[in-house]
Amino acid sequence: HLEIGQAVLVKELELPASAKPDAGDEAIVIQVIEATEDPDELEEGDPLAAPSQPEVIGQKKEDEE
């Protein structure tokens, strides 16, 4: 459980002995920050915007049948 402002670093991960991370030990894997804007109010394409529904790959669209 992470609180706002906390982060997980590469050195904190429990990796198998055979795994060699590309990043250094002090690299941040994930960090919790406080939202400054409502993601639902941001424009589509903004990296902070709320995610839209992903495209389902492999399912035929109605006009392709």
What descriptive keywords fit this protein?
little secondary structure; 65 residues; two-stranded antiparallel sheet; 2 strands
Q: Your description of this structure?
A:
This protein has a domain at 1-34. The protein contains no helices and 2 strands. The chain has strands at residues 7-9, 28-31. The chain has a two-stranded antiparallel ribbon with strand order 1-2. The protein is flat. Residues 36-46 have a biased composition (Acidic residues). Residues 36-65 are annotated as: Disordered.
List the helices and strands and how they pair.
Blueprint: E1 7-9, E2 28-31
Antiparallel strand pairs: 1-2
The strand line-up of the biggest sheet is 1-2
Strands, total number? 2
- The geometry reads as flat
- Largest pleated sheet: 2 strands, antiparallel
Structural class: little secondary structure
Radius of gyration: 19 Å
**Helical percent range?**
under 10%
Low-confidence segments = none
Number of helices, counting only DSSP H or I runs of 4 residues or more: 0
Give the percentage of residues in beta strands.
5-15%
Write down the overall mean pLDDT: 80
Q: How far apart lie the N and C ends?
A: 46 Å
The succession of helices and strands, N to C, reads EE
